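It is worth pausing here to work through a concrete case rather than discussing structure prediction in the abstract. The textbook approach is simple: state the sequence, then state the predicted structure, then interpret. We follow exactly that order.
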Amino acid sequence: MCICTCLKELFNKNLHNSLEITESKMATLTVPPVLTSPRDDAQALYRAFKGFGCDTAAVINILAHRNAMQRALIEQEYKNIYSEELTKRLASELRGDIERAILLWMPDPAVRDATVVRKALSGDVIDLKAATEVICSRTSTQIQHFKQIYHAKFHAYLEHDIEYQASGDLKKLLLAYASAPRYEGPEVDRGLAEQDAKSLYKAGEKKLGTDEDTFIRIFAERSRAQLAAISSAYHSMYGNSLKKAVKRETSGNFELGLLTILQCAENPGRYFAKMLRKAMKGMGTDDKTLTRVIVTRAEIDLQYIKAEYQKKYGKSLNDAVQSETSSHYRTFLLALLGATHR
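Step two, the predicted structure:
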């Protein structure tokens, strides 16, 4: 099978997955009840590019209100009509934060994850933090999807890039987490949860030094529901949270990876709310993280994240983004957050 056919099959498979994701009740993406055709959208985008300067507001008005399947169809139509890649044209017309945000928004989730991780592991600046956050916050199924895309699109294996760029316990964790198949249902084994809690206590708080391999094995192999049960058992048995134990026993990106896995098992909405708060706190804004979280969760669970943000910080996420961003970049992010025009 040629690489083009392989990519096309993966692309279509992931479009189907993306369409299912978009239908999530926790998505914030708003799609007009009556849509123009992908062809009309492609032509409207072309008109927005013509003349002196780009009509960025028109670009946002279309693309920020189309789901993954619709965006892919617009891209196909644009190429058919104008013999040009829409993403290349967007890259040449837009600048700065809005360019990065829209280009990140265009692919379906699996292609986007593969692209973000590949750039983090092979770009001009290696960003192990970003790679760790993406890999460790995804389900086993999502990782398998984006690993296939990773190989087809970049002619590289995710595991090889991890081997080359990461080291020590972080490398072991990422390799184990990216390859271990995990159950994704709600059932848990309480007896095993207590046994694992005991193993983690012996590997960490009970001993001098830390047995990192035990943490890696349990965190990489257990389902989210099971890990949440382990965390609950740990607290009941030892009067201390597993999260605090991880913080005390580990450090750096290894700690980040374990905490990401744990927090996404217990409450993914709260985890991403905390990431967003951290990105906007203090002097300056970490726009890369802000963009990545909003763009990657808009078609999945951003409603849930918004609710957790409001509950934890007493301020709406929309208001926080409104005060920390500006211009077309602000308009685009607020559109993905489901905000009405302000």
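Step three, interpretation. The two ends are 50 Å apart (CA to CA). Confidence is low (pLDDT under 50) at residues 15-23.
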